[in-house]
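Lab notebook page, bench 4
Experiment: in silico fold of construct C2
Operator: M.H.
Input chain length: 210 residues
Purpose: comparison with the prior construct
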Amino acid sequence: MEKRPRLSTPQAQLYGSVGAILVVLIMGLLGVAMLAEPLARARLEGEQARNASWVYAVVTGVSVDAVVSKPVTVSDPIRFGSKASVSIVHVHEHGLRRATAMKFVAPAGYNGDIWLALAIDENGSIIGLKILSHRETPGFGDVITEAGSRWTASLLGRSLANPEPTRWQLRSDGGEIDGVSGATITASAIVAGIYSALSYLDQTMTGEKK
């Protein structure tokens, strides 16, 4: 019978070390594979939370879990006067829709686009409204664009039918919405943008109910 060559001590140590390294690598790969799914899920949840952060600005007291649907992206430049896409998110609690939130652009501001977010309840009334970003002249549109704006708060409770369509304008234009001295263009752009948003949401939600 042929005898197998015996390994020297250094060779045995080398092979032993290589074997140990391979075991560690295999265990490490298995560990990474086991962690991959939880990590991917955590990243997705974090991304969804960041993407929907504007929702929490207009729907108070809502948890991340309540935003059960991803934002629906819509591009309708004819209706909104801008090529920028709008986002719509439905917020549910206990299986019931609590609110619908929308992020959109009012394109006719004094210095350009004004990004807004609003939320309506199941009856179509505005329950939250926030200006997300703008380029209006500092000192003129502040009463409208600043956090906690009383003018913005005055639009809460409004709906597509309140006031009636022909009155969804500033008082200076024959409508029912109060204007702001020195910021008429900004206020008019926001009011027009809100009306377009409410009109779109009304048609969308009516279609869903059919």
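Observations: The beta strands are 72-74, 86-93, 96-109, 112-120, 126-133. The longest strand covers residues 96-109.
Next step: discuss at group meeting.
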